[in-house]
């Protein structure tokens, strides 16, 4: 019985699927859950993915277990709505991704040799994906790069795609020269152009910065996350030192906080060595 399934802690994915079906039942389900659609749930899906990444970054494995469950729930939510609308089901989604993984790993599940370098495996993977895009009638080199990605990550992926077809600077020096050019244009826009034009120049500079990360073999999204974490950690150190003096940031001068910032940074470097 469905009721027994819902209360069976060992029932696995079938239990979760039944719980979602009950939540979405038009007659007996939860009013909030019934009202939701793909668009309204999508922001939660993105949020849960970030919370998974955050738990991993903090090596909090107990929390990661819970966050992975939250992310799995998002898949179940979308597949239940897809099933209701006749688009797809949870089982068809599982079948699709399973087929894709088998097709993309012929050296594991097929008769191709596993004796390949990492570079060759990457090239083979990209070739398989290119054939898949062709099968989906994606004609342009940039087709299929999701619009909903974080802007910095999407810039990186767009540039990576363009580079595959030869549209790329040959070396890092030219990218750095382009950064200097874009920075000068941003300064000029700030002084002489409209806010919209200044924003455009700022975007151009960020786009080239993402490209520099790619040329250096760095993930710009990961690099910026690390910079955010470092800033948060160091500013918390400044606040702690101010609190020890009975002060808050808003009660302090920039010079005082800057000196404390330098002290926090110096301590971090001493600890690292």
Automatic annotation (TrEMBL):
Gene3D superfamilies referenced in this protein's UniProt entry, alphabetically: MazG-like
Enzyme Commission code: 3.6.1.9
Class of the enzyme per the UniProt entry, highest EC level: hydrolase
Residue span, NTP pyrophosphohydrolase MazG-like domain: 36-109
GO molecular function term, any single one: nucleoside triphosphate diphosphatase activity
Coiled-coil spans in chain: none
Top-level taxon in the UniProt lineage: Bacteria
Keyword annotations of the record: Hydrolase
Keyword Hydrolase on entry: yes
SUPFAM superfamilies the record matches: all-alpha NTP pyrophosphatases
Protein name, entry field: Nucleoside triphosphate pyrophosphohydrolase
Organism per entry: Sulfitobacter porphyrae
Organism placement in taxonomy: Bacteria, Pseudomonadati, Pseudomonadota, Alphaproteobacteria, Rhodobacterales
Encoding gene, per UniProt annotation: mazG
